[in-house]
Amino acid sequence: MSNVLIIDDDVILSGLFQDYLEEEKFQVRTADNGTEGLQLALQGGFDIVILDVMMPDISGTEVLKAIRQQSHVPILMFTAKGDDVDRIMGLEAGADDYVPKPCTPRELIARIKAILRRSELSRQQQQDDTIIQTGPLQLWPQQRKATWFDKALELTSTEFSLLETLARNAGQVVSKNALSEAALGRALARFDRSIDVHMSSIRQKLGQQQDGHSYIQTVRGKGYQLIK
What angle is formed at CA 98 by the lines to CA 93 and CA 99, rounded to 5 degrees? Predict the structure, then answer.
């Protein structure tokens, strides 16, 4: 049974989602403000956190940043429908994925299950203690640890999964859809920029080559490639 934490000041909507999730055999805890939600999230014990962007006391983005300082728990953000700014800010702050409001309980459950499937796959892969190395990059899938030029590389869970997928296919182009399946546990939706935002964050952390080019190349119309 997976444990879900919903942080949203809309208690009616949270209650509705809680009922549906519990019917799907999830165990659900809710918090109607960011302060309480942050405290609960940091106590641990949750498999995923559902976090609303707009809250009266502390914004969802600030709660997300605070959680990310101490925890890699998967976080799914509620964002306003069509608001790309909230989505991009959430992804840049370390959210694993987002779902726009209003959404149906079925869509929410599908997103949750996709993230949890990916998390379970990551745990299974962690049983493999093989070190992945390409150029100055080293990855330890079992520990979810990475180094870059022998220095620790701080990555979110989604960023690690993306970089691991690229590293396992270094020198080859990996499609955005394949990256979405590997990192988010779902097919890439039309106009979805999640992978692009996550990849931008990884690029900033890796820096540039001496010639000014990125270590991760965009292959227009195809996907991304990690340079060997």
Answer: 155
